[in-house]
Amino acid sequence: MSSQRPKITVVGAGNVGASCAVWMAERDLGDIVLLDIPAAKDMPKGKALDMQQVGPISNYNSHLTGTTDYADTKDSDICVITAGMPRKPGMSREDLVAINQGIVQDVVKNLVAGSPNAILIVVTNPLDTMAYVAYKASGLPKHRVIGQAGVLDSARMRTFLAAELKVAVENVNASVIGGHGDEMVPLVGYSTVAGVPIAHYLSAEKIAAIVDRTRKGGGELVNLLGVSAWYAPGAAAGFMVEAILKDKKLIVPCAAYLEGEYGLKDMYFGVPVKLGRKGLEQILEYKLTEDEKAMIQKSADLIRETMKALK
How far apart, in Å, are the Cα atoms of 205 and each of 5, 171, 293? Predict the structure, then answer.
């Protein structure tokens, strides 16, 4: 990491990218570059300037730059990739593969050329497949290419649990692993309220309903908004950046490149990891029930299906 303020690039100045940038600026995590395609013209500059003017109100000193030129991203410490087509109603994640593969490959090659030491956080959908594309296109070691999914999915589950139990969200811990889609794997046994397993408070039926809503959380928002969500996904990516820059050694679920962990190889998959200054510093292997192992296999099979659409 450089000795001056950290430099963070966010690729894609749309809803998710802009939400991520303002979340990070609010926490003074570093200087932020908001990059978009040349067709966006002055839009990223305008968004960055607007965010800069929040500084005196929210008391932050992050410097924000909007650009369409990769030269401005040079020597970034972390790059968050949100660029790509969002999912529209009736569109499967698989429909997105062909379009977003080309976008992610192009973005990654341009970023790494100017920032060979950067850590990449991928947010583009279909998430696990696009993280794999970024890893292969970048030539970077696997601990420096991480997918954002589990932080968001776990936040959704924690939101639903806290509302159901009428407790503070800080009291609720939930771990959601697996693919970022309808076959994600909420680990009910590892989900707690003030350290007590949720099964102590909730019936099996109520837990099943919350698990189901968590799994369909992305789709629920697409149906309501007409496009993918942005506030929580943007904050989730920013949360990962903070854990890395502050060397927190924070354990959260993220999409990681697996080489045998959880019985899976040569794919990105959501697992509990430790985030610190080097990026993804450790993959943790939890003891799982037979049911959970079966769910993981099903989730992995779905990702492999999506990966078949890669060119």
Answer: 49, 22, 21
